[in-house]
Write a structure and sequence with these properties.
The complex is a heterodimer of chains A (316) and B (306).
Chain A: H1 2-17, E1 24-28, H2 35-50, E2 54-58, H3 66-79, E3 83-86, H4 95-103, E4 108-111, E5 122-126, H5 128-142, E6 147-153, H6 159-173, E7 178-185, H7 190-203, E8 209-212, H8 215-227, E9 233-237, H9 241-249, E10 254-256, H10 260-275, E11 283-286, E12 290-292, H11 311-314
Parallel strand pairs in A: 1-2, 1-3, 3-4, 4-5, 5-11, 6-7, 6-8, 8-9, 9-10
Antiparallel strand pairs in A: 10-12
Helix pairs in contact in A: 2-10, 3-4, 5-6, 7-8
Chain B: H1 2-17, H2 24-49, H3 57-75, H4 78-101, H5 107-125, E1 130-132, H6 136-143, E2 145-146, E3 149-150, H7 151-169, H8 171-181, H9 183-188, H10 193-219, E4 221-223, H11 228-240, H12 252-271, H13 279-305
Antiparallel strand pairs in B: 1-4, 2-3
The chains are: A alpha/beta (316), B mainly alpha (306).
């Protein structure tokens, strides 16, 4: 009996400590592994704290696990926060959970991956398609508009990956003299990208460019090129600190700035404005930036130094 | 060794289908990629042979890589990093062993729990970040060559030999098979069951730590999420290689064949540039075929020999 009493006491203490005065915002992200979502959580936390509120973070322990996120949303509804921010693990599969949030009349902001159905205060996201297209275009220009390229795909089923693939292919359409040798999956994983690139470099004697759907895969591809003593231009997406380091050093040509910190800030600012009765646009698209050797400096600093942008900077 | 025939058959098909397959460069890549998978799976093979399971090898690799990365960054010494990861992996393995052998927690639950403890610690330690950029003398373990062979392949060769000798030329090895076949009988016959089990889980953990060194040297970066995608391929390499999940049957040479089959499939699909949407299905069907044909021919053989 004793351990149970003790456990109950501990849980009560935790619950008491968890109470705060400002608005409580539940924030749902896709995983605990991707630096993008860590930055997203930091951004949301900073904006909510700045408004005297409290952000409660939820992320599946198994990265991108649908069932776990569904449960987390249901559990959070029971706690009845003032508002929620949701980055759905899967835009279609999370529909029932979104319906439950709507039914509980909890204001909901959708971020990063756009859900096709449900009532949202706003959708805050990057234009993955435009970002992938513009970053790929920079590479295609850099290799002189001719040559042979390969694509490293992220997870099948991820909406961001689908948009990025469409963006890459759209960029290739404008360069008929560039041949796409292969598009192969590496699931956003570095080791897998390294091995896939090693394999592809054996299959193709000439590879001029590699388009990777995130920085981790781009960095894996760079390792494979170095191992095979081959040269090719490589781009990634996300502008992670490691990616920025590689741009600075010259091994990565460019990275699309998928700015998690800024997105987390803006999603939280949107929901806070809504709670204060202000009007929020139905879609807030963060501006697309391609980071390369000419403009990397603002990204090349520690994450702790960052501050949220002003609302007027984003929504014009 | 009929699984070896399946491996050779897949290799022959690929040699005909792709010009790039039978090149020296590709064969070196295959050897390097197989060696990494073999090293994680080899320790798990011993545990499975003794009728247990180690679900924590992937997570263990992730945290051991983070530990080695931290040690190298803090001390600047590649050697300390190379020692730190297997030592840390060993520690986690010994805790697994104690949970299973002393507290009698079922192996699946003990190592499943450990998976999340270790994964959780990794998330707390590296929240969405990475530790990257290591000195060239350390990178050489993953990317360098010695006597014309990639270093990870040499490491694989060493541990294949140690594993083979351990299993087939020592009483420790005999004990593992005996424990896997019947733990109660083995205990009654005087085998120090607890000590053996703790040691086996320890070895499995240490091998995960050693694989972490190779991983880190090869990709030059430790991240929190690297372990999870490695668990199932590692267990699959053991089982595709013919080691029985029930214990008592199999060995490390089988695991080498299993790891090579899985690596060959991924390599072949890249070389043939098979569409991403078809790759999981193709992998599943070929693995099932390879094992089912083997099982079928094995049953025929036993029927005939009666």
């Amino acid at each position: 009996m004793r351990p149970i009493v003790l456990l109950a006491a501990v849980l009560c203490c935790l619950a008491a400590a968890a109470r705060a005065d400002g608005p409580t915002i539940a924030v749902f992200t896709k995983d605990l592994t991707n630096p993008f979502y860590e930055a997203f959580r930091n951004g949301a936390e900073m904006a909510v704290k700045g408004a005297g509120g409290r952000a409660v973070q939820y992320a599946p322990n198994r990265p991108d696990n649908i069932a776990e996120q569904m449960n987390q949303v249901e559990n959070a509804i029971a706690a009845h926060p003032d508002a929620m921010i949701l980055v759905p693990v899967d835009v279609k599969a999370l529909a029932p959970a979104i319906n439950k949030v709507n039914a509980a009349r909890i204001p909901l902001v959708n971020a990063a991956e756009r859900a096709p159905a449900g009532e949202f205060v706003s959708y805050v996201g990057s234009d993955d398609f435009a970002m992938a297209r513009d970053t790929a275009t920079l590479l295609l220009k850099a290799i002189g508009g001719r040559g042979k390229v390969i694509i490293l795909e992220g997870n099948r089923g991820s909406e961001t990956n689908r948009q990025r693939m469409d963006g890459f292919r759209e960029a290739l359409k404008a360069y008929p003299d560039v041949a796409l040798l292969a598009a192969q999956p590496a699931n956003y994983q570095r080791l897998q990208a390294l091995q896939v690139t090693e394999n592809l470099l054996q299959a193709f004697a000439q590879v001029d460019g590699i388009l990777a759907a995130n920085d981790s895969m781009a960095l894996g591809a760079i390792e494979a090129l170095a191992g095979a003593k081959r040269k090719a231009a490589v781009i990634g997406i996300n502008a992670t600190p490691e990616g920025i380091g590689a741009i600075k050093q010259g091994s990565l040509l460019a990275s699309g700035d998928f700015d998690g910190f800024k997105m987390g800030c803006v999603a939280a600012m949107a929901v806070l404005r809504h709670l204060q009765g202000q009007v929020v646009p139905k879609t807030v698209a963060l501006p697309v930036t391609v980071v390369d050797k000419s403009n990397y400096q603002p990204w090349d600093r520690p994450a702790g130094d960052r501050t949220c942008p002003a609302w007027a900077e984003i929504v014009k | 060794m009929r699984r070896l025939a399946a491996l050779l058959l897949i290799g022959m098909v690929l040699a005909v289908a792709s010009d790039g397959f039978l090149t020296a460069g590709n064969l070196f890549n295959l050897a390097r990629q197989t060696s990494f998978l073999f090293i994680i799976a080899s320790g798990a093979t011993l545990v499975i042979l003794a009728g247990g399971i180690d679900l924590s090898v992937g997570a263990n690799l992730g945290l051991s890589a983070a530990v080695a990365a931290t040690v190298i960054k803090a001390t600047g010494s590649a050697a300390l990093g190379i020692l730190a990861a297997p030592a840390f992996g060993l520690l986690i393995g010994l805790i697994n062993g104690c949970l299973v052998a002393v507290l009698r927690v079922p192996a699946f639950i003990a190592t499943y729990g450990m998976l999340w403890v270790v994964q959780g610690l990794t998330y707390l330690y590296l929240p969405g970040g990475a530790i990257y950029g290591f000195p060239p003398e350390f990178r050489a373990i993953g990317t360098g060559s010695l006597l014309g062979l990639p270093v990870p392949v040499l490491v694989m060769g060493i541990f294949l030999a140690i594993g083979g000798l351990l299993l087939h030329a020592t009483t420790f090895g005999q004990d593992i098979y005996a424990i896997g076949a019947n733990p109660e009988a083995s205990r009654l016959s005087g085998i120090p069951l607890r000590r053996r089990l703790v040691a086996l889980y320890g070895v499995s953990g240490a091998m995960a730590g050693l694989a972490a060194v190779i991983y880190l040297a090869r990709v030059n970066s430790a991240e929190a999420g690297i372990g999870e995608p490695l668990l199932l391929p590692a267990i699959a390499a053991v089982l595709v290689g013919g080691t029985s999940l029930m214990g008592g049957v199999g060995g490390v040479t089988g695991t080498l064949v299993g790891a090579a089959i899985l690596t060959l499939l991924a390599n072949g699909m890249n070389l043939l540039t098979i569409d991403a949407a078809w790759q999981p299905l193709a992998t599943g069907v070929i693995v099932l075929l390879a094992v089912a044909v083997d099982m079928l021919s094995r049953r025929r053989l036993t029927v005939r020999s009666r």
